């Protein structure tokens, strides 16, 4: 009789241990996916402005259409330079790289510490890679291209510069992405930083979630 009761007690204790273990496992919170902000279609943001420069045409403005893609936490920038319609896809890692270099440039500008020099990849603020689409009418080709940031004097003013180097389309290695130099003044750069700030982007999605799921 005692042996039988012992077996019953042992079974109860084992069951409690198993339930406790399951409870511990299920209580672990899931890690947040930084590449997913919300289940929404691309959201159009305010347009940005930048400049291009060529020896033939001088300095010209470029209007940039900006979109937040919540499902991938990317910002897509669309603009036309010369014959090509171009799309830049900026993931969070790339945005963070550009932000670090932009803040360094702005600090040097405020300190009046931007000496005249020839910008190059060697003396760049940062180097990275970015996804680029391009085409005559719309971006039909794609490639991952190297880029770097620096500053360059135009009309005796030190502009922040983003340089995109050509790279081949992986589906057609005879087609290369266009070389792109984009220039931003301190105020235009501030506009870019504010628009691509992660907290700001998340607040937009939070507002969309509130509209979608509020029941009243």
Number of helices: 4
- Level of helix content? 25-40%
Structural class call reads alpha+beta
Mean pLDDT: 90
Largest sheet: 9 strands, antiparallel
- Total domain units: 1
| General form | globular
Strand content: 35-45%
Any guess at the CATH architecture? Roll
The CATH topology is Transcriptional Co-activator pc4, Chain A
Give the radius of gyration.
26 Å
CA-to-CA gap between the ends?
63 Å
The CATH class assignment is: Mainly Beta
Number of strands: 11
Helix/strand order, N-terminal first: HEEEEEHEEEEEEHH
Uncertain segments are 22-28
Structure, explained:
The structure is a single chain. With 216 residues, the chain is of the alpha+beta class. The chain has a single domain (43-208), classed as Transcriptional Co-activator pc4, Chain A, CATH 2.30.31. Helices cover 32% and strands 37% of the residues. The chain is built from four helices and eleven strands. Strands 1, 2, 3, 4, 5, 6, 7, 8 and 11 form a nine-stranded antiparallel sheet that branches. It has a two-stranded antiparallel sheet with strand order 9-10. It is globular, with a radius of gyration of 26 Å.
